[in-house]
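The authors assume throughout that readers already know how a fold can be written as discrete tokens. A single example would do more here than another paragraph of explanation. An entry of this sort, consisting of the sequence and the corresponding backbone structure tokens, reads as follows:
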Amino acid sequence: MIFQEIFNNNFEIIIPEFFLTTILLILLLFGVFYKKNQNTQKILIIKNITTIIIYLLLILLILTLNITNISNNILNGVLIINNFTQFIKIILILSTIVCFLIQQKYLIQQKINSYEINILMLISLLGLMLLVSSNHFITLYLAIELQSLSFYILTSTQKKSILSIEAGLKYFILGSIASGFILFGSSIIYAITGSLNFNNIFLILSNINFLDNINILISLSYGLIFILVGILFKIGASPFHFWLPDVYEGAPNNISSFFAIVPKIAFIGILIRLFFEIFFNISYFFEIFFYIIAFLSMLIGALSSLQQKKIKRLLAYSSISHVGFILIGFTSNMLNNIPFILLYVIIYIITSINLWTSYLSLNINHKPIKYLTDLSNIYTINKLIAVIIILNIFSLAGIPPLAGFFSKLFIFFSAIKNNYFSLVFFGIIISVLSSFYYLKIIKIIYFEKILRKMYISQITKIQSIILLINTQFIIFLFVFPNIILVNLNKIYLYLLI
């Protein structure tokens, strides 16, 4: 009876989370009881398990898509399930499936036999799914910790690499501090409102006249800033970005691709819920805060990228710059900014998938490439890969008529509506500046003298299909941008219900 009251007859809408948890338990038990045999080829076992996980994730995707009985609150208001959270979860699951697909060949080539990597990636997915549906600060904190702990270990999976161990240790220390910030900010908000439930906090804040209670506003602002700092750390916004380049460089390439592709949509999703929903009544006072963070992220990301010689560090700083563009959408508390934010994140994810898929297929003497100069003879070996890399680089730079141009254009429109012309002007300058280091890559691919012979491993059919579909989307988005925006508008409307 108590169990039934807790679930409030809505158990079926959290079946995806329970299904994923069950998968994890089965895989963990298999890892514990499986007796290693010296005569068994471990790499074949890992390949088979990865394939099984992909099929299980497809089932998870189907379960998520089939949820039609949407309920606002479950588990006594600890979690919230609506079309907005379901949309973010679908993107998360699809991104994770793609990451498993593009890494299979890489794992075999590099003879990475760690059984635990797949489990840790699934644990992080579970944490991100719970994060998106969090309706309570304790749930939010625990979900972030579940995701973060798996990421700390994944970063350090290269036991023989000093860079990997150093990056994992640095990420763990700084990540723990960021989690502490979230916990401390939550305690401040609890001290003021007497609740950690998002719905209760929203109702309490709706009944407060902040002009007559300026002290409450200041205290709430302190608490919310601590929480925002912790979340902005997780997405690598400046000046909380110092861990990101080291983690990208130190982690194995398949793990770096997972870091770059999957988590951002979840943390941006919870930021949208906090800024545009729960704390909407005081979000106006944080527009300058997001203005400064967006400015610093774009500036530091672009300037630091100009100095990079390693591919993964360049992608890391490029990510920081793009986070700055995403945060422009938070400089105004107008709800119609949400589709623009989501569109930018989705286009960035698709572009990242293309670049990382291409990167994972590049080798020199059967070892992953590291430096930009290693790209010098791609065009002579595989013209298609070279063209795909260039198209996606142009998209990141915001060159029309590619998808990246429209994502930046709509984000700039959101800032113009709030009269932040200076931020738009600065964003355009940063886009031009970023073109320099993107053009540097094109120069290396087409015109640089070949220094070392490169070997491009045969791309699998699945990788080819992923590259083909995503590249077509990047090229032809200008034909139907309104259709996508209309559907994204429907998603954000669920925040109003």
Q: What stands out?
A: The longest helix spans residues 162-193.
